[in-house]
Specification:
The protein has 8 helices and 19 strands. By secondary structure, it is of the alpha+beta class. It starts with 6 loop residues before the first helix and ends in a 14-residue tail after the last strand.
């Protein structure tokens, strides 16, 4: 079992833990008299209205260094990384040879020949091995070193409208203004006496910074962030609040919105598949007729007719309701939550030809009842991105 540098703090706050890969992550922090649902809703609203702090240390981190690092990443990711400027971040998608999504994350260019790849928490070891396999068996000409560094860094997200004010109280030795530190930029420097890498990236849709510091400084930096944020009402939030926040924004999670048979096109991320690159892993497979055929399942949003009704994970949408099974399935729920921000249930689903069915109402037969939900855009909140670009 793997624990982050903040594990003891989480335990002292009576956190409910969940396994993520081999890690134990704080799922939520119930207070006296709160059940799990009340605690999760409080944490979500703290991020939306004030500022929240998340232990994101389990995020996979892989340093990729060498004269061929940029070209190597161009082959690994569906989108272009050789054009990324030093000090900037870019979200990338990774496919296998069959054209199916296997991981995603933000990669940062630290130098001309030096990148830091972030992967999913559960996928870090698998992706590091995947990179090595290609270097050692297929592209042996590349001069690239791959070094997993997940456990060497503690990493925390400061997210919410007050995030910049909290950060300014930590005495950064670099410019953190909106102009000096735009969205998807990174800085290397110090917060007070502590060395940090700071990324302005957001998985919540709010103004957000991720602070990375060597793991042995992690607890001290965490405590200082909490002290600096006290006057703004900062609250720690767990993984479930994070998942609701990202679902409100329509952000995918590999393993939830994907199941090993899903392409970037299926989840509406066509723009992240390069049309300029000569080749990348899975490119040829995307040209197969069955991966381009009409009627494939596509990612959509769902709003239930009854806003208080939360669809179960994995619930099947059927073409026609019958008195008893079998019924023809046309898709399934991939993520489903109650959103305190919107005061209603929201869900994401993979539905046959979903993007051409906007506004259509689907039926989900459950035990003893049928729930009806309308197909919508999967972005439920702040589609323009005005809250993170401030």
């Amino acid at each position: 079992m793997r624990r982050t540098a903040i594990f003891r703090w989480h335990k002292a706050q009576n956190a409910v833990f969940e396994p993520v890969g081999q890690w134990r992550r704080a799922y939520t922090y119930p207070r006296a008299g709160e059940d799990k649902h009340a605690a999760i809703n409080r944490e979500i609203l703290a991020v939306r209205r004030k500022v929240g702090l998340l232990d994101a240390s389990t995020l996979g981190k892989i340093e990729i260094k060498g004269p061929d690092a940029a070209e190597f990443l161009d082959r690994i990711y569906t989108n272009m990384f050789s054009s990324l400027k030093v000090g900037r971040c870019r979200y990338g998608l990774m496919m296998n040879e069959l054209g199916f999504l296997i991981d995603d994350g933000v990669t940062v260019r630290l130098g001309d020949d030096h990148f830091l790849m972030h992967t999913t928490s559960g996928g870090a070891d698998r992706i590091a091995a995947w990179l090595e396999e290609w270097l050692q068996t297929e592209w042996t000409q590349y001069k690239v070193f791959v070094t997993p560094v997940t456990e060497q860094w503690a990493q925390f997200a400061i997210a919410g409208p007050k995030a910049r004010e909290v950060l300014s109280k930590l005495a950064p030795d670099f410019d953190i203004s909106a102009e000096g530190f735009p969205h998807m930029a990174m800085k290397e420097g110090r917060l007070g006496t502590y060395p940090v890498r700071l990324y302005r990236i957001s998985f919540s849709g709010e103004l957000s910074y991720e602070v990375a510091t060597p793991a042995n400084f992690g607890r001290s930096v965490w405590d200082q962030i909490l002290a600096a944020g006290a006057e703004f009402g900062i609250e720690a939030y767990g993984t479930e609040a994070l998942h609701v926040l990202r679902a409100e924004k329509g952000y995918i999670v590999v393993g939830d919105e994907t199941d090993g048979t899903v392409t970037p096109f299926d989840v509406g991320l066509d723009g992240l598949v390069s049309k300029k690159k000569a080749d990348f892993i899975g490119k040829r497979s995307l040209e197969q007729s069955f991966l381009k055929s009409a009627g494939r399942k596509q990612l959509v949003g769902l709003l239930t007719d009854d806003p208080k009704e939360v669809l179960p994970d994995g619930a099947y949408a059927v073409r026609t309701i019958k008195d008893k099974p079998p019924m023809e399935m046309i898709g399934q729920v991939t993520s489903t939550y109650y959103s305190p921000t919107l005061d209603r249930s929201i869900a994401m689903a993979l539905i046959e030809d979903g993007r051409n069915r906007m506004g259509e109402t689907l039926s989900f037969p459950l035990e003893g009842k049928v729930v009806r939900a309308r197909i919508t855009d999967p972005v439920f909140y702040d589609k323009e991105g005005s809250r993170q670009n401030v």
